[in-house]
Amino acid sequence: MPHQSRVTRRLSMKTALAAATALPLSGTALAATPATADERGGDRLRVMSFNLRYASTAEPNSWAVRRPVTRALLRREHPHVIGTQEGLYQQVRDIESDLGGHYDWIGTGRAGGSRDEFMAVFYDTRRLAPLEYDHFWLSDTPDVIGSNTWGGGSIRMVTWVRFCDLRDGDREFCFLDTHLDNAGQNARARAASLIVERIAGLDASLPLVVTGDFNVPAHGNPVYDTMLGAGLADSWDAAAERSALYATFHGYKPLTPDGERIDWILVTPGVTVHRASINTFSLDGQFPSDHLPVQATLTLG
To answer: Which of 21, 139, 179, 217 is deepest in the core (most CB within 10 A)?
Structure first.
């Protein structure tokens, strides 16, 4: 990853030993390119949460078909930071390539190294520099790679990063990305409680942005109440301006107006949400994923 000498990875000894035998956990460092005039002129941070739908060769909706649509979407929106879910290792590398030379990423497979799905965090190196990052697993043993103790249908985890915003006076903030279990409410509820506990251990003076596929509807589940009970705000509700509302999971079926939002961007008080949107981009009827990306334009404070 870029700026290696300036980045601290917080690891337990067990995690460090396991990681030593794994494949690289971040993208290849790439040279930063000059910022555009638009990026020099404003300090609003463009955030996206995007469940990529894991790469598959099965038709319809294979990754080979979806990749060009995903590329077009991301190049059109050019977010400064993207919390992704479900990406497989080569899929993450494809997105790194398609985003262009000024993006990099941080992540590890939820089973360790390149194995299984990633909570990869992509960021624009012209805007953001990572200072510290770590991963933990949503289980009774969060520092054990690949652990899954709550009867969930899959291994689940969190990737978090402390960033320096190079275009906002070097302001620091924390960014946390996750994907809660799809099979069990108990696993989701305990995961939310663990995330809240870990959030409490972060620097409370720094703004926090949380992205994820929570697999439950906003305003309709105790998981949502737990996250907001930690002092977080739903960017959709806090936004000064919003797009049309659609269910964020569509399963490649017709979109559902006024449907349930299971993909959220949450922020701490003091963060201003200028706009929140649910992105319905498609090309010739092909969606990039079975989820719609959710986005927010923020001022950190």
So the answer is: 179
